[in-house]
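Here's a chain:
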Amino acid sequence: MRRRAGQLARFGAVGIAGIIVNLAVFNLLRLGPLSPESEVAGDDDRVVTAKILATVVSILFAWWGHRGWTFRGGRRHRPAREMALFGLVNLVALALEAAVVAVSHHGLGLTSAVADNVASLIGIGIGTVARYSGYALFVFNPEPEAARD
């Protein structure tokens, strides 16, 4: 129980830092090169594109943090396979996050910066639950020595 509590605390610390990275990149893109006034982005999906790019940057940050700190010593796969599993878990979480922003922005017509950020935070929350579950079950869950690759 104590080990799990420490792991959850480390997961939370990396997660909070990842949220800051995610929202910072999202807003830099949304207000910069992917803003509605920008001529760089030609379509109406700029906010979803910004969300996807921000999430990818935060995924890379999280890989580094979780692999080296949160789940240290719990690796069960070779690094390439571990990274592939980490990527798959994050693709599911990314789809969940982007879907929340897309439904809010395009489906419900809530297009203000505040609405986009609230939707982004809700998506991050849903994605976080999916990530922790996936990491603990599939990516960093140690198996008995006989069952390892």
